[in-house]
Amino acid sequence: QVQLVESGGGLVQAGGSLRVSCTASGSIFSINDMGWYRQAPGKQRELVATVTSSGSTNYADSAKGRFTISRDNAKNTVYLQMNNLNPEDTAVYYCYVVGRSRGIFSTYWGQGTQVTVSS
Fold first, then answer.
1. Contact 74, 63 (CB under 8 A)
2. CA–CA separation, 20 and 13 (whole Å)
């Protein structure tokens, strides 16, 4: 059983910062990519940022220069530091992890954490 537990969402004013975290636990090994998607009301889920096992990162254009993704491999944890937030960043943020469990590589998802940015 693999579980992803997210934390750190909440309400913040425009221009503020938040950091969300996601920790994978259970029988998961050889974690490759980790990352974050988000879904705003009435919109499709979109990629925010990813980080590979070697530390290479990729960002959506909307996140470049404002968000920083990082990971702690010893803790199976991925972080997303979000600065200079604006109301358009309001969404449920979902983490994902690509890892091996019971010999099979799969993608696992967190339950989502709400980020609300007020104007």
1. no
2. 16
